[in-house]
Amino acid sequence: MRLVFAVIFISLIDEISSAAISPSKAASYLEKFGYAAPPSYRRSAGNRMSSSYLEEALRAFQEFSDLPITGKLDEATLTKMDEKRCGNPDMTGTVNAKRKKRYALKGGKWDHKQLTYKFINYPTKLSVSQSESEIRTAFQWWEDNSSLRFSKVTKGEHADIEIMFAVGDHGDWDSFDGPGHTLAHAYFPVFGGNVHFDEAEPWSISSASGVKLGTVAAHEFGHSLGLSHSDVTTALMAPFYSPNTKGLHSDDIQALAVQELYGKSLEKTDTVTQSPVPTTGKTEQTNTKVPPISSCNGRRFDAITRLNNGSTYAFQGEMFWRLNDKNADKGFPASIRTVWGISGKVDAALTFNGNTDIFQGHILHRFRNGIRIQTSNISSIYRNIPSFVDAAFEWSGNGKIYFIKGQKYWRYNPSRGAVAFGYPKSLSVWGGLPKHIDSAMKWKGKTYFFENGQYYRFADYKMHVASSTESPYPRRADERWLGCRGNALMTGLAQNQKRTVKT
Ligand SMILES: [Ca+2]
Ligand SMILES: [Ca+2]
Ligand SMILES: [Zn+2]
Ligand SMILES: [Zn+2]
């Protein structure tokens, strides 16, 4: 299919003698930055894939980059694609999807204005003091235009924004590409706000002798604050590196202001208290923030997945938690609708190959780097996988994708894009699991299953739930994943029961 794609592209090339970017690279480029649907979608699109589809992707890119809109892979377009730029996507949907408003941000915002940052490491081409001065200047640009304040903390301390320099594959499935092209990428607040720089770039304190670190950092910090790319080419938040940028553009300041006003803070989302058991009686609803204690009532997780940035997300009803290794992060639970931009409960969540897929009924929402890049029927992405799945996960045992629905499970080969022969099979193959599974995930190289407020760790080589004489599985999910402990757990239950009785 890649070949066919390339052939169509060649027909769109406008008589270029020496193209710096090959047609297949141009196709990858349009995918990476959100102008064309990813390959798994195109594969299933089959014959419907047409040169007009690709033309439209090119038009969208040309429009966003302020190039003549030709729909062809002309010289100006190829030159633009060869430029240094930020690795975050430009578009939040495929070209067929309705274009999002420029400031329709789904990245959330920080619940505090005094933010901290730290260096995980430093670029080899600059001294520590040069690096710190460049980063300080970059934050200053944002401080000068907002009430936000940034301070550096030392390595051992927690920081809101972590700064890291890395080459190639660095653990988040969004590999850097050597000198040129992608310079850096960054995560929205809800995905941690961290910034990664491509260590292969000639980082410099001056744009005359390399890539000016401060300029690139200032752009990336915009993402750390929840801002998307701007199609105003002179804005700091425009995706391309511009050595002459000296500060924020009015477009950036407006974007920040709009976001400060309308951007939803994780801390301030409306929440609804949950009853520990289904009840026909009305339960009290409250618009105040749920105290952390009420997370502890034997929560069952509808869906759970660990993103490539290391954060784990657990969904229940309309709410979700971001989990660290011990408990839930401050400010959670938060509203799924507010942060992810999708309404209703989630059936299952799967992170694979850099994408996070959220399953709801017949529908799949695909997210990458914190941005929704696609919404489709499940069957158009995962052929022959049913609607209303219970759980989806990459099994640590073999790197294949598995889906569970009822007492059946499907093994899916992602590289072939097909269900393996002979599936679905009975869930009883997975030794020691209950007859129903709420959710499952791969977490730090191991697979975990969740059911009715309890969880099981799976021993891949035994094809059975892990055995533990001290504390056998299943174990309480809220204790392990939300950090609930004895008293807190009891109090949480008692409070909820009291409310249910009263009303
Ligand atoms: Ca690069
Ligand atoms: Ca589920
Ligand atoms: Zn960017
Ligand atoms: Zn990265």
Characterization of the model:
This protein has helices at 2-12, 23-32, 39-45, 51-64, 75-81, 128-143, 213-224, 250-262, 336-340, 378-381, 477-481, 486-502, and strands at residues 85-86, 114-119, 149-152, 161-166, 182-186, 195-198, 203-204, 211-212, 303-306, 312-316, 319-323, 334-335, 348-352, 355-360, 363-368, 371-377, 391-394, 401-405, 408-413, 418-419, 425-426, 439-443, 446-451, 454-459, 464-465, 475-476. Helix 6 (128-143) packs across helix 7 (213-224). By secondary structure, the chain is α+β, with helices and mostly antiparallel strands. The protein folds into three domains: 2-82, no CATH class; 114-262, Collagenase (Catalytic Domain) (3-Layer(aba) Sandwich); 268-498, Hemopexin. It has twelve helices and 26 strands. The strands form six sheets. Strands 1-5-6-4-2-3 form a six-stranded mixed sheet, with helices on one face. Strands 17, 18, 19, 20 and 21 form a five-stranded antiparallel sheet that branches. Strands 22, 23, 24, 25 and 26 form a five-stranded antiparallel sheet that branches. Strand 17 and strand 18 form a beta hairpin. Bound molecules: calcium ion (2 copies) and zinc ion (2 copies). Residues 302-303, 347-348, 390-391, 438-439 line the site of one calcium ion (CA). One calcium ion binds next to loops.
